Amino acid sequence: MTSATEPILPDTRLRLIEAAAEAFYTGGYNISMETIAAHAGVAKQTLYNHFSSKEALFSEVVRRDAERMTTALEEDGGDLRARLLRFAIAFRALVMDQRCIALHRTLIAESLRFPEMTRAFYESGPAHTLRGLTQLFDQEMRAGRLRSDGAGAAEFAADMLLGMLSGAERTRYLLGIEVRPAENDQDRAEKIVDCFLRIFVN
Length: 202
Known about the structure:
Blueprint: H1 12-27, H2 33-40, H3 44-50, H4 54-74, H5 80-95, H6 98-110, H7 115-124, H8 126-142, H9 153-165, H10 167-174, H11 186-200
Helix pairs in contact: 1-2, 1-4, 1-6, 4-5, 4-7, 4-8, 5-11, 7-8, 8-9, 9-11
């Protein structure tokens, strides 16, 4: 473990975020900052030099995962279907992952004791993703490539697609009724995206 006075390397922040992600996904929100620092191989003070609180660190972990999904929408190459398919695969890979399922269970169980945790999760994760999709659909609707039913149509479409990509399937995983198969589910993602586009494409 490094000392509190050891110079901070350029990749320290990324290493802290990656260590925190693993810690939160496996140990839940109750895991201590000391444990996260130990996972990252740094002193606790180094961790606090980068993140003022566990809430701030947790928000950054969730935001990073959300940005990985919205980045798929911004990547060049392909039409709207290709962009949505990249997003759908990335989204399902994250939210259906057993570690994410376990963390979500912890969030629900601890939401009354740690309301700041659930707010941080929602704003940095689901809300961030919803905003990214809404912005894309608003652009597509203004260009006439997607049908608009008036004010709020872009956000409604984004909310609808996110629901289609998780829905009752994820509820079954959350409740432990089923365990997600390990194989790639690109075929299911394609069916969902194509169904969505049949509804909204002009």
